[in-house]
Amino acid sequence: MGDDWDEVICSAPSQSSAGGSWNNNNNQTGIKPPAGRGRGAAALASQMNSVKISSDDEWGAGVKAVKPVPSSNGWDAPAPKAGNSSDWGAPASTAPASSGGWNAPESTSQFKNDFDDQPRGGGWGSTGASGLKSTGGGRPCHKCGEEGHMARECPKGGGGGGGGSRACHKCGEEGHFSRECPQAGGGGGSGPRTCHKCGEEGHFSRECPQGGGGGGGGGGSRACHKCGEEGHFSRECPQGGGGGGSGPRTCHKCGEEGHMSRDCPQGGGGGDGKCFKCHEAGHTSKDCPNPFSELTEDGKPREQYIPEAVTCDEKELFKGIVCGERFNNFDKVVLQVTGKDVPQYITSFEEAGLRPLLLQNIKNSGYIKPTPVQKASIAVILAKRDLIACAVTGSGKTAAYLVPVMNILLEQGVAGASHGMLQKPEVVIVAPTRELAIQIHREACKFSYNSVLKSVIIYGGTVVNHQRTNLQAGCNILVATAGRLKDFLDRGIFDFTAVRFLILDEADRMLDMGFGPDIEKMVNHPTMPPKGIRRVCMFSATFPDEVQALAATYMEDYIFVTTGIVGGTNPDVEQLFFQCSKRDKRAKLMEVLQDLGDAKTIVFVDSKKTADFVAAFLCNNNLQSTSIHGDRLQSQREQALRDFKNGVRNILVATNVAARGLDIAGVNYVVNYDLPTDIEEYVHRVGRTGRVGNIGKSISFFDDEKDGPNVGKFVSLLTKSNADVPPFMQAMVSGVSGMGYDFSAPSSQGGFASRDVRRFGDKPGMAAALPTEAEESWD
Ligand SMILES: Nc1ncnc2c1ncn2[C@@H]1O[C@H](COP(=O)(O)OP(=O)(O)OP(=O)(O)O)[C@@H](O)[C@H]1O
């Protein structure tokens, strides 16, 4: 096996350890809102403003066609105006209707004193659309050109005729209206105008001898919108009932040709023929007999939440964490790349041969050189290989996949996304939490800025119809949480047929027992291209062996990238531990937070109840805190995060829902009020600080009773991460209390490891780790 493994060592291992000069004053001062009792009162008021209520409408609510205004004009005016009642899809139907026989080309300029530019009913002095009657004033008669009477009262000539220099629209001669033209029947084209059906001059399309019963027929080369054939309008189409799409157009409900969605024999509301409200078949949402449930399927309060769209403001979009004083330490980190035919890693973005547009967006993001995980992953993805990348928190894994994937799409000339009932994204990215998905989507919008590529996000806790409309407006890159992804897939709103890249962010979390079954279904979906055609890339700061073995089953000959201390804690985060019993935690927390002042701090707890309790406790003690956890409404979760990011609240009390991926500027401290039992979750939690070379600090309360059994894992992790092991922990594992620990044991046996299992010949059991909080539904 050894020959197959190419190993690239980037440079000497970093010996950087936690600690260094710690600056207590380096916090970002939060703007304090007016002090108030009760948790988040001010925040709650403002967050209510951001909640928009959507209508639970039918298919494609966001793309409703504007109804044309009826017109009595027999002319199929060459430049179609609204008001033409034909079934033809007038492409730019904006102008008002005309019911007159005259198609007065410049009526507004000719009659300066007219009250308005509205269409007229024909003849002088008729009541216009404005409702005001024209007097004629000094205007000349349209027939004889003299003032004092209207054309219909003209002593010269009978009923019609073109006034002044105006010529009849049929024969082009002066002296009569087209409707009185002696040359033809009732209609016809003026001068060079031709019939819209047969293309010949001398008659209107409704009188065309070639046409069927009169009004029908497609003019010129126009084809019927239903059957695609020429010679009749869609409303007279012999092939179909009430409606239908033109040519290849299909019903919006069942996808079949020959009828419109409202006549669909499958009934129901959506693509799956089911009501959008209750998901039962046989009726549309507006006829839904089932009372609206105030609770979601998992018993949480239901809200109709439409989140804000990602900003279009360039300045805002490119804002991010500025890399810190230790950024250059990345250069000392060991980069290991293993697998068959390892592609050569890049040393600069320019060297990767990226498209100028991407290089510009990278530059605008403030990136000067790639981080180690970017050096390797960009090369691997550009070489179109499957990939597992395991790199320390805050080291730029998001850009490590977004940039090369976008480059490939642009290189291959992928068309910009277009509207369609069934979307076929080229890239699907799945994340474990809604907030992380939002962040990834924002990054995707940033790197694809000014390009044809379109990123769309779908996630739980938001109005389905809104996100469906967004998705159906076109999508190249779909960012999703697992539940909503599955839901939209089942509803037939998108499929995987065009997928070139499937990316799992926080992949070890995505493959564990919480999400694993959903991911398995997704990868084995009938529309998913097979291994080797689709590429799978997985990223995380931790990658236990048993999860890696499972991941391997979805990939073909994957490359394994690791940087620094694999699965270890970020060396730029100083980690402190205080022994503290459950009883004493509250007082200790107050003491710690008072010391930290206005510093941006995330306080992690182990349950939603505790999150509410601690946040309320802090607010009651005049500390500006808010909370995020799975029982809060999605609008509240996002508002809490916004308040924390903007400095309205400087303390965020969170469950593990905020442990992974979130990249928030200025977070200098993480407090583990409760330590997680899952060691990987600890790595991610403390990784919310100390990002891209900035310095951070974590403070953890170690409760002997609850955390004692896990002490070995912590000692192993801290040792491997070159971090200080507190003396009390050393004592606990020294054997005095019989807690000897095998640091090199595979993670499935309680050890801590993240390495290429193929290389070490491990045969880990497939028992995946349990989610940290079984009660926490994240999606
Ligand atoms: N090459 C770079 N130069 C400067 N900043 C960078 C670079 N790459 C990424 N960043 C910034 O580093 C921050 C962290 O990036 P990102 O969130 O992708 O890290 P991550 O490795 O995915 O972290 P986590 O493991 O916590 O999910 C972001 O603010 C990002 O804009």
Automatic annotation (TrEMBL):
> Bias regions of kind Gly residues — which residues?
120-139
Where does the motif Q motif lie? 347-375
- Which InterPro entries does the record match to this protein? DEAD/DEAH_box_helicase_dom, Ded1/Dbp1_DEADc, Helicase_ATP-bd, Helicase_C-like, P-loop_NTPase, RNA-helicase_DEAD-box_CS, RNA_helicase_DEAD_Q_motif, Znf_CCHC
Per UniProt, residues of the CCHC-type domain are 141-156, 168-183, 195-210, 224-239, 251-266, 274-290
- Residues in DEAD-box RNA helicase Q domain copies: 347-375
Question: What are the boundaries of the region Disordered?
Answer: 1-139
Q: Which reaction does it catalyse?
A: ATP + H2O = ADP + phosphate + H(+)
Listed Pfam families = DEAD, Helicase_C, zf-CCHC
Q: What family name appears in the similarity comment?
A: Belongs to the DEAD box helicase family. DDX4/VASA subfamily.
The protein, known as? RNA helicase
